[in-house]
């Protein structure tokens, strides 16, 4: 069974999380590593100390393949079929401790700005940045996804006990869920040409 097929989604999440933990802390070293977490807005209420949260909130078929349920692999190399997906993440900064609301919110906005710069500078995820079983020779696009206030309100409206926080959305594409089945290489087929149907010309005697 293909390990990548089972872990592709979680491997992408781990890739983004490790990217934030390593590079955001390069700029803001005072932030503890565990304060940058894979956590939904609802879970933040039960998880103290989160300053930057990353949450997977939607999965959709990749637009380039929207009319196809699956994409065939390279049959000559025995590659399996795959289902390309777009993964949508919510990146949210939460106010840290501070003497005033202004200080707390300025701190959150600073951390969010640093995180956005990290994602901008890593718009193509490939090579050693990728985690888990993701193939190191593939390229995943990490793109800022525009969101309106109405979009954010709908998302946070699912969590009635949580106040709306400053958030941005990113999409990672294409994340391929590979089939666990193997692809049989095509056998030798008989090729029929137009010459097979040619009518012989009778020579005049």
Give the percentage of residues in beta strands. 15-25%
Largest sheet: 6 strands, mixed
Radius of gyration: 25 Å
User: Which class do the helix and strand fractions yield?
Assistant: alpha+beta
Unreliable residue stretches? 1-5, 73-78, 183-205
Mean pLDDT comes to 80
Backbone shape? globular
| Count of individual beta strands | 6
Order of helices and strands: HEHEEHEEHE
Task: Estimate nothing, just give the exact number of structural domains.
Answer: 1
Describe this structure in words.
This protein has 205 residues and is of the alpha+beta class. It has one domain. The protein is built from four helices and six strands, in the order αβαββαββαβ. It has a six-stranded mixed beta sheet. Helix 2 links the parallel strand 1 and strand 2. The chain is globular. The N terminus and C terminus are likely disordered.
Spell out the blueprint of helices and strands.
Elements: H1 3-27, E1 36-38, H2 41-44, E2 52-61, E3 82-93, H3 101-121, E4 124-125, E5 140-145, H4 149-157, E6 167-178
Parallel strand pairs: 1-2
Antiparallel strand pairs: 2-3, 3-6, 4-5, 5-6
Helix pairs in contact: 1-3
Describe the structure using short key phrases.
205 residues, alpha+beta, six-stranded mixed beta sheet, 29% helix, disordered C terminus
